[in-house]
Amino acid sequence: MDIVTKAPRGTADKLPAQINKWHTIEKAAARIAETYGCKELRTPTFEHTELFQRGVGDTTDVVQKEMYTFNDKKGRSITLKPEGTAGAVRAALENGLLNEALPLKLYYLTSCFRYEAPQSGRLREFKQFGVEYFGADSPMSDAELICMADGIFRFLRIENIRLEINSIGCPKCRAEYQKALKEYYVQYSEQLCDTCKERLEKNPMRLLDCKSEICHGFAEKAPIILDYLCDECKTHFDKVKKALDDMGVKYTVNPRIVRGLDYYTNTVFEFISDNCGTQGTVCAGGRYNGLVEEIGGKSVSGLGFAMGLERVIMVMDAQNADYEPAKKCDLFIAGTDEASSLYAMNLVRQLRDYGFWAECDIVGRSLKSQMKYADKLGANFSMVIGENEIQSGKAELKNMKNGEKSFVNIGDKFAEGIGSILMAIE
Ligand code: ATP
Ligand code: MG
To answer: Ligand 1: does its nearest atom lie under 6 Å from the Cβ of 174?
Structure first.
């Protein structure tokens, strides 16, 4: 029989054989974020569409082309979250989190949904790990945030990633820059891609971020924002760089980074790798001082980053990085007949209460095929229980790696007694 349908295009099952990769990365990211004082926030998978229109920006690719939007049964427009920041800001405002001691530091692990052309490193459902800081204005906070992302990559021993930073100024200095950009691009206006023709009017900085080859070419010679920064923004950027230098975080300044989302101000950054397909950006972020107000709060500064976990895995795979090893079965207890199998099951339950992965036969296999199955599981130890063992209260424990055998007590305090032996194995 054929299965009813395949998984939708651009989605990927995360299979048990690979799940240790996800656990490694998710745990590392959460653990490092917690050392920076971040607390986890979980927001809904879907939000009212206007949150993203407002919070991500009407002129962005994400809002214009990539959102999964539908009407629910009451006719409300709903969107599956394409990114994590807008929901985090909404939740922080709605629940009064910004009235507590600032800075507020949050992290999240979430699926994001974007209707894009799927390719290597680009999916329609993908996983992001993100961090948001609210109420931190000083350049020290930009540096701390960048240092955290760098720390996650260092913790995972990722080496094939580089950091690029830029400042895109504040609305004041950006106005001047946008004017200069428009003047520059007007000469090419006929040759720009259709989206960029529109962007030229509404948001010329978006042109620098266009992925079409021809627009990308024009971007290379375009005026750069760093020449237009006001004194305040320039000082802010210099201090961020100084703090990164002092902490030994390596970066290069790339004046062409503008970021795809509308709400950024001042510092923007990307961690880039040549090892994640045609994509490149593994983690991206920056400061977004206008966002909280845009979504309806008072003026509170914000900054954050999001990393694409599929891309982190691609980068780690490319450099043969170590993941936490898949769990191994500690002990398989075989039974020679029904009564012994039942006895074995009770022993297994006791071991599980102590946190060991123990197994026994639950499908009615012969002794021989139980032992084959134990081998397949890669069990560290095995043990056979029969009438004799039950009567004597002792059974032979076999180390499946080196064949060594020893007798253990299977009566009272079974799990306590055997526990230290099971744990001693590498
Ligand atoms: P890109 O330039 O690759 O389209 P973006 O600017 O749209 O990225 P952001 O919105 O900044 O990406 O999202 C942060 C991170 O999430 C990206 O750096 C990337 O690692 C990951 N990401 C974004 N879109 C996808 C996707 N469709 N599939 C997998 N990962 C993605
Ligand atoms: Mg994108």
So the answer is: no
